[in-house]
Amino acid sequence: MPNQNQIVCCDLRGGYLTGPQVDEFVEFTTDKAMKLYPVLRKALTATLEAGEAEASSC
Description:
- Helices cover 66% and strands 0% of the residues.
- By secondary structure, the protein is mostly helical.
- It has one domain (18-58).
- This is Amidohydrolase.
């Protein structure tokens, strides 16, 4: 679950990057991760609910 203590990983390959560029990439990655979390949570919840329904019908 996203929180302030979460580690964000950016795979930066090749070339020379300045400090501001690295900051921009980390901010971009963090923003995308926070937007992806609700989608991932919804998919996992639906999968778990479907699995529980299937298990209870056996």
